[in-house]
Design a protein that fits this description.
By secondary structure, this protein is α/β, with parallel strands linked by helices. It is built from eleven helices and 14 strands. The strands form four sheets. It has a seven-stranded parallel beta sheet with strand order 3-2-1-4-5-6-11, sandwiched between helices. A three-stranded mixed beta sheet has the order 12-9-14. Strands 7-10 form a two-stranded parallel ribbon. Strand 1, helix 1 and strand 2 form a beta-alpha-beta unit. The longest helix is centred in the first third of the chain and has 22 residues. The chain is globular. The protein starts with a strand and ends with a helix.
């Protein structure tokens, strides 16, 4: 099996590479990232069967050469500018990176191996503001993106399905809700809270935590469950289908903060709102229905939210 992972040195990309290598250590993995950095320090699989490429996916000639030379059996396309806040600051670059890179891959696959299975990793942000916030979002619900990141991913979502319809490439689309876990960078809510708590414990900052909107409800899933879902969709899903990847439960952001503080001895912590952490447009409630991926593939989540939050906090305790 020859597998290509884009964004391999990112948060989910590294977890995916380790997960796939545990399932089949004989697979040949090619990893693409704008910076491959310290990937091999984090990789637990067969390094002799793994090659990294520093490629800008918006360069169609480089992408064409990669696909022509490697001829992958499967492509997990994770690479993206994934920060909503950064997408407001750089909307043009966000659209360029998130759309052109995916289309270049699909075009090269069409030319050199249209039997290659392609997972387009998109996002639940494409759903936008829910028409019925009291109900979990289903795959057939309308798409109504409300930020530049979501718009770019919605475009790739449509492009991917079009290549299935037009060229019969076995394409799958995942729409991931909030995925979290140890190793995620700050700028994402759970990691942001956990790092601040770890710093307070080590007396590296005052006992106060700066937050954004604590009143929103979100659907959180452990990144280890997420990459397992990618594997299940790729190998057991139905081509041309869209799959939500989520826990199916909504949790208030303030409860995430309370739970993390409950794991610490530092209970007397002040909470301050930082206006820079607030989005121009924000959904009050956003959670998904995961019945389709369960029914089509047999996937099930394995980590509880408390397990994940403890792992995140312990990660930052070791780092700080």
């Amino acid at each position: 099996m020859k597998i290509l992972i884009t964004g391999i040195n990112g948060f989910a990309g590294t977890y995916l590479a380790n997960h796939l290598s545990k399932i089949d250590n004989s697979s040949v993995i090619a990893g693409v990232d704008i910076s491959t950095g310290n990937f091999f320090e984090k990789f637990e699989g067969n390094k002799n069967n793994t090659e990294l490429f520093n490629i800008d996916l918006t360069d169609e000639n480089d992408v064409d050469k990669l696909i022509r030379d490697f001829i992958p059996d499967q492509v997990y396309h994770l690479a993206a500018q994934a920060s909503v806040s950064n997408s407001w600051k750089e909307p043009i670059n966000t659209f360029k990176n998130n759309v052109f890179g995916g289309v270049n891959l699909l075009e090269s696959i069409r030319k050199y191996n249209n039997k290659c299975r392609f997972l387009s990793v998109c996002t639940a942000e494409v759903y936008g503001i829910s028409e019925n916030p009291s109900m979990p979002i289903k795959e057939e619900d309308r798409i109504y993106p409300t930020n530049p990141y979501a718009i770019s991913k919605a475009a790739l979502d449509f492009f991917s399905i079009t290549y299935y319809l037009g060229y019969k490439i076995p394409v799958f689309v995942s729409r991931s809700f909030n995925h979290i876990g140890p190793g995620q960078s700050i700028g994402f809510v759970c990691s942001d809270f956990a790092k601040q708590i770890a710093q307070i414990e080590k007396k590296l900052r005052k006992p106060e935590i700066f937050v954004g909107n604590l009143e929103a409800y979100r659907d959180f899933l452990d990144v280890r469950d997420v990459v397992n879902a990618y594997y299940y969709i790729m190998n057991k899903g139905k081509p041309g289908e869209v799959y939500n990847i989520c826990s199916g439960e909504k949790i208030k952001i303030s409860d995430i903060l309370k739970t993390l503080i409950s794991f610490s001895k530092e209970k007397n912590v002040a909470v301050r709102v930082d206006s820079s952490k607030l989005r121009p447009v924000d959904n009050k409630i956003m959670y998904g229905d995961n019945s389709k991926i369960k029914e089509h593939t047999g996937w099930l989540p394995g980590y509880s939210i408390n397990e994940t939050l403890k792992d995140i906090l312990n990660y930052w305790r070791n780092i700080v």
